[in-house]
Specification:
single chain, 142 residues, mainly beta, 2 helices, 10% helix, globular
Length: 142
């Protein structure tokens, strides 16, 4: 049995750009800065910058509701891959493939003149196909 699960909470480090594969599937690559839990005395805490990739509905949700600087909580699994660049140099990449995302409860950044709204609940998003059976009226005991 193998276990590969990643849970992170941090800030998105760049503007998000939703892209599509040739087959039309949505994909979003982004980096999350996750503050380390320790620091040497007299020094500021450092952050790890974690590369993440989201696909499909999850990618679309993140690009719609999150932006640079926003706190995000996510779950996924760790993947590694290699590729060769134009010069024949081999590169190794480690990424988190995101399969669910949650708001963190931080105040949203309001538009000019608006007071920021507080997120009162944690919301997770997965593939809607996972919820179709739950959302149907059949079999509901009330």
């Amino acid at each position: 049995m193998a276990l590969n699960r990643v849970v992170l909470m941090g800030r998105i480090t760049q503007e998000l750009e939703l892209k599509s594969t040739q087959s039309g599937k949505s994909v979003l690559s982004f980096t999350v800065a996750v503050e380390q839990s320790y620091a040497k005395q007299g020094e500021e805490k450092k952050a790890d910058f974690i590369s993440c990739v989201a696909w499909g509905n999850t990618a679309e949700f993140i690009s719609k509701y999150f932006s640079k600087g926003r706190m995000i909580a996510l779950e996924g699994n760790l993947r590694t891959r290699t590729y060769e660049d134009k010069n024949g140099s081999k590169h190794y990449v480690t990424e988190v493939y995101v399969d669910s995302v949650s708001f963190t409860g931080e105040a949203q950044q309001g538009k000019s003149g608006e007071k920021p709204k507080e997120q009162n609940a944690t919301v997770s998003i997965g593939d809607m196909a996972d919820f179709e059976e739950i959302l149907s009226d059949e079999g509901v005991p009330f």
